[in-house]
Design a protein that fits this description.
7% strand; mainly alpha; binds zinc ion; 5 helices; 56% helix
Length: 110
């Protein structure tokens, strides 16, 4: 899964992984949403662009949208794994696993 095209492919198709679950940036609800994609993410995309702008780029077919979405998804995967390593080292893997399953397993793109 981590040596795979999924995070980049789905990013190019407008699906973004966040700590709140999957986000489909093309949804109309983000049209005027000036908040960052993921307030808990410190990637370049989340620090500099809003959901509304990412949605605009995606719907306009701007290549910048694909790049910014890809930057975020790759950063998210790296953070997901860093937190997993941290949880293992601190002997709290079960809690982290349960958090991830609860947060992501049933998360449909919204
Ligand atoms: Zn981000």
């Amino acid at each position: 899964m981590f040596d795979c095209v999924i995070p980049t492919r789905v990013a190019r198709n407008g699906t973004l992984y966040t700590w709140q679950g999957k986000v489909s940036i093309k949804r109309n609800e983000y049209r005027e949403d000036n908040s960052p994609l993921d307030a808990d993410c410190d990637c370049y995309t989340c620090k500099n662009y809003s959901k509304a702008y990412l949605r605009h780029l995606f719907l306009s077919g701007e290549i910048l949208g694909s790049r910014l979405n890809t930057i975020h998804n790759l950063h998210f995967y790296m953070a997901l794994m860093a937190k997993a390593r941290e949880a293992i080292a601190e002997n709290r893997w079960s809690q982290y696993r349960d958090f991830c399953v609860q947060r992501f397993a049933k998360s449909n793109a919204q």
